[in-house]
Specification:
A hairpin with a 5-residue loop joins strand 1 and strand 2. The longest helix is centred in the C-terminal third of the chain and has 17 residues. The chain has four helices and five strands. The model has no long low-confidence stretch (mean pLDDT 85).
Length: 147
């Protein structure tokens, strides 16, 4: 019988752009700051689901593009979200996705997904600090008391 050997492989990229380096080392303290940082998602015509992996001091370790979807949905499976979080040794995560319609109001599916990801994160010992939806403005689950 043969078994596959699985090795974690990831790549660290060095970014020489001063503006990006400043964002990566910045300590984010509010949902508005994160929404501003990822506001480039606003004009997109497809949904993107991104996770920010944070260290113990809430500094960004990694930005993971988990899923690219269609006009009004993006398939997100917890396994894909947590695979990279474990590789980056994330202590916490911020979930972010966009609504191409411009309306950042969470759908029922958004609420259900958030709940499932929080449950999974608790099992793994990772804190989910927020889920931010970006549209013409932004919606923060944490600011609304939903996390």
């Amino acid at each position: 019988m043969r078994f596959k050997v699985i090795k974690a492989v990831y790549e660290t990229l060095s970014v020489n752009e001063p503006d990006i380096a400043e964002y990566a080392s910045h300590h984010y303290t509010s949902s508005a700051q994160v929404a501003d940082f990822l506001y480039f998602l606003k004009p997109e015509c497809k949904e993107y689901f991104i996770t920010l992996h944070l260290d113990g001091k809430n500094r960004i370790l990694c930005l993971d593009m988990v899923s690219q979807g269609s006009l009004n949905q993006s398939l997100v499976h917890p396994r894909e979200v947590f695979k990279t979080a474990m590789l980056s040794s994330a202590a916490a995560m911020i979930l972010v996705h966009n609504h191409p319609s411009g309306d950042p109001t969470p759908s029922g599916e958004d609420k259900e997904l958030t709940h499932r990801l929080i449950e999974g994160a608790e099992i793994l010992g990772i804190r989910v600090l927020d889920h931010i939806i970006i549209g013409d403005s932004y919606f923060s689950f944490a600011e609304r008391g939903l996390i």
